[in-house]
Amino acid sequence: MPRLFYGYVILGLCFLNMIFVRGVAGSFSVFYVALLEDFHWSHGVGASIVSINSLVYALVSPLVGWAFDRLGPRLLMPLGGVLIGCGLLTSGLSQSLWQLYLFYGFLVAVGQGALGFVSHSALISHWFVRRRGTAIGLSSMGQGCGMLLIVPLAQLLISLKGWRSAFMLLGALVLCVLTPANALLQRRSPRDMGQLPDGDIPSGPDEVGPHRRRRTGGRSEWTPKSALRSFPFWSITAGHLALGTGLFIIYTHLVAYLIHEGFDRLFAAFALGLTGFIRIGGTSLWGFVTDRLGSDKAYGISTVITLAGILCLGLVGSGSPAWLVYASIILYGIGHSAGNPIYGVVIADIFGGSHVGTIFGFLEIGFGFGMALGAWLGGALFDLTGSYRWAFALGLATFTISFLAVRASVRWQRRETAKAR
Asked: Is the CA virtual torsion 367, 141, 135, 180 positive or negative?
């Protein structure tokens, strides 16, 4: 009887990690409202906590990629769980803005980096080759579950116990679940378990051909130095910057926007959680579609759906029916969930190899800066205009730029592959 392919265990573990990483990040939207009320900060000042968190995430991403390549996930990822848990616990003790900068902005951010997109995409690229898009999509479903489960849970805890206790309870949950699970179960690659990528059965001792995905320009190995000199690196960086900006305009400010337009707090938190519920199916769908249509075609379709959702969201106002909010969330939730699996596939297809973790880390800098910019700009534009609609208009532009960057990178890859042939 054939052994269970351990890659499925890795997928399950990545799914669990994503529940907490995305859930913690998404839940700041409800903490944001509570902090504004408690400390009487402006929207821009409150959103600066997310901006600091995102900047730190961006700056540590190359270090995370290096640590993945050198130390492996079995050391790196449990450490990430410890840092997130301790950061949340101490955030609950904060008495000032600078303490939240330190605890949530720094400690939690470093932990999110260790357990985030860089390490998971690099890890899955080792375990799955032919079915890479589907695998990244399935693991990314955990992000949707995190939004669905942890965002409403955070709002409930804040309503019952206050934001301090809510931070601390979430931190304890992370420490009790993620740290031991990753310490016990993580493995770097199929070789560690005597297996091949995708669970294939070896036909001979040197079999590699069936598992080798297309390479670009005849390269057998990318290094961080050669990647930094390439067109797709900077194209993807620009796309990542735009994507992070658009995502965190919505993630950070959706709850505050709906409350500002007169909707109930729990309804607003549920609406944000609903984006996660839709993302559960969306990420797996787009991973599947990417493996069949190609990254650029799949991302083009998803971008059109995303833009439709943001346009509908901008139409929501005081007295708007709930169905308009639901329609906006459904469209946006389906469309934006393509970003994680498609960027993961594009980066792994172009830059896959022994340095893939480090290259993922450098590319994630753009996304982190985008998260910081989107969170801050959403609050700053509201403070300036009294409305979030200008922020949503910016979101339309950023998602469009993100698509164009993916399209340019995929076309470059095809041209270089054709030349090599």
From this structure: positive
What tens digit of pLDDT does each residue of 217-234 get? Answer: 445 578 888 988 999 999
Of 313, 278, 297, the closest CA to residue 394 belongs to 313
pLDDT of 372-402, one tens digit each?
A: 899 888 888 988 988 888 999 999 999 999 9
- What is the signed CA dihedral for 52, 161, 271, 280, rounded to 10 degrees? 80
Instruction: Give the other-Cβ count within 10 Å of 203's Cβ.
Output: 10
Structural domains of the chain, with CATH: 7-197+222-420 (1.20.1250.20)
Cα of first residue to Cα of last residue in the chain, in angstroms, is 41
**3-class DSSP state for residue 311?**
helix
Name which of 256, 77, 279, 45 is nearest 177 in CA terms: 77
Distances (CA, A) of 327 to 43, 101, 163, 268: 26, 35, 30, 14
Q: What's the pLDDT score for residue 202?
A: 65
What does DSSP assign to residue 229? T
Distance CA 413, CA 419 (A): 10
Torsion of CA 93, 142, 366, 357, to 10 degrees: 110
Q: Is 251 left (phi over 0), alpha (psi -120 to 50) or beta?
A: alpha
Count of CB atoms within 10 A of residue 54's CB? 27
* DSSP characters over 44-79: HHHHHHHHHHHHHHHHHHHHHHHHHHHH-HHHHHHH
Radius of gyration of the chain (CA): 21
On whether the CB atoms of residues 151 and 29 are closer than 8 A, the answer is yes
Complete DSSP assignment for 241-298: HHHHHHHHHHHHHHHHHHHHTT--HHHHHHHHHHHHHHHHHHHHHHHHHHHHH-HHHH
Three-state DSSP class for 352?
coil
The residue whose two tokens read 């959680």 is 273
Distance CA 237, CA 370 (A): 10
Residues found in the chain: 421
pTM of the model: 0.73
Residue 264 backbone zone (phi > 0: left; psi -120 to 50: alpha; other: beta): beta
